[in-house]
Amino acid sequence: xxxxxxxxxxxxxxxxxxxxxxxxxxxxxxLRERYGLFVGGEWLEPKETYATIDPSSEEPLAxxxxxxxxxxxxxxxxxxEAFEDGWSELPGSERAKYLFRIARILQExxxxxxxxxxxxxxxPIRESRDVDVPLSAAHFFYYAGWADKLEYxxxxxxxxxxxxxxxxxxxxxxxxxxAWKIAPALAAGNTVVLKxxxxxxxxxxxxxxxxxxxxxxxxxxNIVTGDGRAGAALVKAEVDKVAFTGSTEVGKxxxxxxxxxxxxxxxxxxxxxxxxxxxxxxLDQAVEGIxxxxxxxxxxxxCAGSRLLVQESIYEPVISKLxxxxxxxxxxxxLDKNTDVGAINSRQQLDKIEELVRSGxxxxxxxxxxxxxxxxxxxxxxxxxxxxxxxxxxxxxxEIFGPVLSVLTFRTPExxxxxxxxxxxxxxxxxxxxxxxxxxSMAQKLRAGVIWANTYNRFDPTSPFGGYKESGFGREGGLHxxxxxxxxx
Amino acid sequence: MSRLPVRKTYKLFIxxxxxxxxxxxxxEAEGQNVARASRKDVRDAVRxxxxxxxxxxxxxxxxxxxxxxxxxEMMEARRAEFAELCSGPKEVERSIDRVVWYAGWADKLAQxxxxxxxxxxxxxxxxVPEPTGVVGILAPPEPALAGLVSRVAPAIVGGNxxxxxxxxxxxxxxxxxxxxxxxxxxxxGVVNILTGGREELAPVLASHMDVNALDVSGAxxxxxxxxxxxxxxxxxxxxxxxxxxxxxxxxxFLELKTVWHPIGV
Lengths: 489, 265
Fold this sequence. Notes:
The structure holds 2 protein chains of 2 kinds. By secondary structure, chain A is an alpha/beta fold. In chain A, 40% of the residues lie in helices and 17% in strands. Chain A is built from 16 helices and 19 strands. Chain B has 10 helices and 10 strands. In chain B, strand 1 and strand 2 form a beta hairpin. In chain B, helix 1 crosses helix 8. Chains A and B meet through helix 10, strand 17 and strand 18 of A and strand 4, helix 9 and strand 10 of B. Strand 17 of chain A pairs parallel with strand 10 of chain B, so a sheet runs across the interface.
């Protein structure tokens, strides 16, 4: 470090910095008191309902359906009918135009979706506005263009749709995961039944209104809400394909359930990604990358850089810069445009994070949390760094899915590779160095589906995403993301 | 007086060596005593495969292609022996030609299956195929040679290491192939071949936590149970063609890795 940098790093962070609040208005979102299940283009009155809440205030937002096995069956029948009644025979160029319409409507209604996404999920509005919603629209726009070009994607093969796809998505990126699932499925000529996560159904239900505006034929997309029981019913129903994003535990159960059936399966499961910082990295950029890697979306990211591997020679400056940066993170109201870290998605998730953090302290790791005022109501967790972490600790092994970073060190590139790969997961990894040949060598040796070099947590519809090992199989995004929704002669 | 021929002992092929089953068991197939592998032999074979995977997958594609071509050369030299152990010369020729065909794929896979991705931002982004790791293969019961070759060649050409359970009733072609592999510059452990009871061995392979993919193209009957066991560590379950060739047969044993890097000055 230069003398100037040292001075800057030692300079105290003004404690009296007050930010005026900059809340985004909720006015644009018009919630109904009660939502049905979206089946065959109509709202089906559910037998059971439950309240979905705002995790930053614990206030109920609306009543939504808890789909029963029978109701899930109705949705699958509607999808089957739509598939056989024309959708599968519609020319690809016409399917494409529906998808283009959906992309455009999402762009037009982006503010509404962004606010709703933050309301129901707890994520900062800056993120819903700048990441989730624009990427969702981009995803539909990208796959729209594939719908009439499938034969160019797979040389010497005749691609055909599978039929009905059953899709189950998580609560961390509700609208974006919906787009990742629905766009390629429809482009390939399938119809779908999608189940949003139990805690975040509202953007998927608002999406039904987009479908109405796009005049998508009834039954091509069906949305059934509810908890894991609805998901289990969908896996068992007469679908031709199951696509699941969520925990490795549930993914394994689904793979077992589908054993011996001919249902095609893709799984996008958990991760425990290593973010590897070499001593020749641009440290300030790397620290920003570390922060973005683990605190983005409250750490509710399957590809989060939750294990920081720092080369020993730069351990001190990295940790001091990191702690300093943590003090400037603003935790609070998801709808405030200044917020960096929003609310934890649910009580259940908060319990899990707290339990794992306790285990970290008990096993002997050293905890650091910046001073932070948290709102009284709602679910919150202070951005946390653990140092002095051994590879065997639970916080280094298990996916926490929260704003909690575990720091380990290494001396040689070989040791970094060894430690980074020492996990049953293999979704993503990060590497920070100014040396080009080292980047390429690390990118080759890290056993993970996505490698971010000198960046982290970037996503794009053209870029395939998915895991190695127990992080799942199949890819979403890009040309490769079409394959899971097609069969070939 | 005519000369008494020297018979062959039919053994397993693990880590480039030819051990008997650690269990000391054999069974009779095609008129010969053949080693009857145990669950311990499966575990040893997986360990050998894992050990070989690093080196094999790190070899250049050109090199791997040459090793596969060398396999074809060595098979060619044993055409007569192979013909005795399968349906005849036609199957042998098909099998050899198939190995040559796959040899040529080694350095083309990344170009056909990979991509450069035009992301909406200042990033260089590309996707390359990589081997999934250790692959368990249940060889098709028939055809004895072509079935085996049709599953093993696409698995190893992409850089995987394989543990193969040979056809239970027709294992001799597999043992013959092991002798080819041992003399064809294939690093020890890249292909491991076990003979024995399918019912006994397949579940051990399917549930092994250090096996990344399970090829059930040649499995008979017990597939649903094997798939259930495979879920324990999220194995890729491959349903391929028992006697055909295609780059998509290779793709079943591959992962796709996407790499991002910022563009800037």
